[in-house]
Automatic annotation (TrEMBL):
InterPro entries: Amino_oxidase (IPR002937), FAD/NAD-bd_sf (IPR036188), TAT_signal (IPR006311), Zeta_carotene_desat/Oxidored (IPR050464). It comes from Nocardia stercoris. One of its GO terms (molecular function) is oxidoreductase activity. Keywords: Membrane, Transmembrane, Transmembrane helix. Residues 49-537 form the Amine oxidase domain. This is FAD-dependent oxidoreductase. The chain crosses the membrane at residues 12-34. It comes from the Bacteria.
Length: 580
């Protein structure tokens, strides 16, 4: 390497800047291919998980599908080449928007993955998912907590045993005062035994911090179970996060101790870079099904009567199809709602209430293998709410020395979930730091949380890569982000539209559409696309089988209590366990 000084090296800075500047051009789409399907035509705008899922389901049913994607297929889920790093015939180092995480309670996305052929895999790209055995909660100036993610023997037979078992598990794994752990277990029991009407009518309108009574508990409780849980899950503060959203996720992670009905282990990752292990084989499969891909960006939709009559691309090219499926993010989709569209679907105007925040990744390429955790790590006291995973330990398909200049031994992929609090080096939030400052800040915050055998030094750093969606405007001294994340704030469920409304041939897919998972995830994007396709099949009167839809887990043991809660909620009474 070049001469090294303390902190992030000049070479690392230059490589990071080069990756950011060139990333937009990475992953360019191939020329369109002729479609063999003769069914009704569908124009899909957006080539992320939602758009690709819709294309997959429609093409399998004989529709003529064209996907228009402005940048690169895969959207936020794609790999992003660190342009210019490959030498000696090796490909560029793989960067990404953020690390991939496939919880065992995902069902829609794994079902799609099984239908994507992959050489040597019986179950397609699904076989490229592997489980992680542990998660680490690293504290600054304190011992870390390691929590197994593969446990499967925590039986319970009723609410009392559930509360006691869960409380003991939290107290032990999180080193939480027993009283706090028992209290948190009770709050989860309240949510898990709440009927649907209460979840939507009461808990959707309550912030998570208020639901768990964080202000009355210990500091560890506030940090771990209120602040950290919400920031790292939905990239937002606990005083804004919807209890319905956080509670639903808790029900999946903690309410199913035997993982009954799960698609697989709780924490799964891919065994190689995302494009290699998933996105590229998916695109190949779609091309084989007759899907056409076009590099283009939507400019607007035209309407005549109750139907979309056509679309316009930013280069002026008109697009005509029988049906139009919008699979772009919420903040983009709502820019297309003209007065004519809103006159037919006035509920779309409520999308202005939806909030987006930043949750973006940076990759640190290391000269040696990291020994941090055999899974994900949460840096509990980091002001930027960092989480990470060391990737090479899971990349059995193509290890990192096969990329770049051949010297990289590991990649510490870090997600930055809070861009609004001051950092430890420059006293500025990430939004106001240039890219070099972001890299230095994240590196320092990670180092402050790691001790002993897992300690990192500046000598371990080879280079870094920041998601190119984050663009530094030197004139305004602030960052912009092309890929923000929908966050589920209190009371916004009603602002999220259904997959189809009064415009006959317009369908919506994306993680902002109402879904059972109720969280901005790849699973939600996939589920929404299936709902959009099913609506399209209904509109066309198609006899093709509908897309399979899955339900989230709910403990059958607690079902009688949820049924009893229906009458209690209707009578204005609290949940029977809500004694706080």
């Amino acid at each position: 390497m070049a001469e090294r000084r303390s902190g992030v090296t000049r070479r690392a800075v230059l490589r990071g800047a080069m990756g950011v500047g060139a990333g937009v051009a990475a992953g360019a789409l191939c020329s369109p291919v002729a479609t063999a399907n003769t069914g009704p035509s569908v124009a899909i705008f957006g080539g992320g998980v939602a758009g690709l899922t819709a294309a997959h389901e429609l093409a399998e049913r004989g529709f003529a599908v064209t996907v228009y994607e402005r940048r690169a297929l895969g959207g936020k889920a794609r790999s992003i080449p660190f342009t210019g790093t490959g030498t000696g015939g090796r490909p560029d180092l793989p960067g990404e928007h953020g690390f991939r995480f496939f919880p065992g309670f995902y069902h829609h996305l794994p079902d799609t993955m099984r239908r994507i052929p992959f050489a040597g895999n019986v179950n397609g790209v699904w076989d490229n998912l592997i489980s992680t055995p542990e998660a680490r909660f690293a504290r600054k100036d304190a011992d870390s907590t390691f929590v197994p993610t593969s446990y499967s023997d925590i039986p319970w037979s009723g609410p009392g045993e559930f509360q006691q078992t869960l409380g003991s598990m939290i107290a032990t794994s999180a080193k939480m005062p027993p009283a706090d752990a028992a209290y948190f277990a009770n709050r989860l029991l309240v949510f898990f035994t709440s009927c649907d009407d209460r979840r939507l009518g009461q808990w959707e309108k309550v912030a998570w911090r208020d639901f768990v009574g964080a202000n009355e508990r210990s500091e560890d409780f506030r940090i771990l179970l209120s602040r950290t849980l919400t920031t790292m899950l939905v990239a937002m503060s606990d005083d804004q996060a919807s209890t319905r959203t956080i509670g639903t996720m808790g029900e999946q992670f903690l309410g199913n101790p035997l993982w009954q009905g799960n698609d697989g282990p709780m924490d799964r990752v891919l065994n190689g870079p995302t494009n290699q292990a998933w996105i590229d084989p998916w695109v190949d499969r779609l091309r084989g099904l007759g899907v056409t891909f076009v590099t283009a960006e939507l400019a607007g939709l035209d309407i005549a009567g109750s139907r979309i009559s056509g679309a316009r691309l930013t280069d002026g090219t008109p697009v005509t199809a029988d049906h139009y499926l919008l699979a772009v993010p919420a903040e983009v989709a709502r820019t297309f709602w003209t007065p004519e569209i809103l006159s037919l679907q006035p509920e779309l105007a409520n999308m202005s209430w939806l909030n987006v925040e930043w949750m973006t990744g940076i990759q640190f390429y290391l000269n040696r293998p990291a020994n941090i955790a055999r899974g994900h790590t949460a840096y509990v006291d980091s002001p930027w709410s960092l989480t990470s995973i060391s990737q090479n330990q899971f990349w059995a398909r193509t290890e990192l020395p096969a990329f770049g200049d051949g010297t990289v031994q590991d990649c510490l992929s870090v997600d930055i979930s809070n861009w609004n609090l001051p950092g430890v080096l420059y006293g500025k939030p990430a939004r106001d730091c240039n890219h070099d400052e972001i890299a230095r800040e994240v590196w320092e915050q990670v180092k402050q949380h790691l001790v002993g055998d897992s300690r990192l030094s500046d000598a371990d750093l080879h280079s870094w890569f920041l998601d190119p969606g984050v663009a530094w405007d030197a004139n305004r001294s602030v960052n912009t982000n092309a890929d923000p994340l929908l966050v589920n704030t209190v009371g916004t469920w009603s602002a999220r539209p259904a997959a189809h409304g009064a415009v006959d041939n317009l369908f919506l897919a994306g993680d902002y559409v109402q879904t059972t998972i109720d969280l901005a995830t790849m699973e939600g994007a996939n589920e929404s696309a299936r709902a959009a396709v099913n609506a399209l099949l209904d509109v066309t009167g198609s006899s093709a089988p509908r897309c399979r839809m899955f339900s989230l887990f709910r403990s059958p043991i607690l079902e009688p209590l949820r049924q009893a809660d229906i009458a209690r909620y209707a009578a204005g009474q609290p949940n029977q366990f809500d004694t706080a």
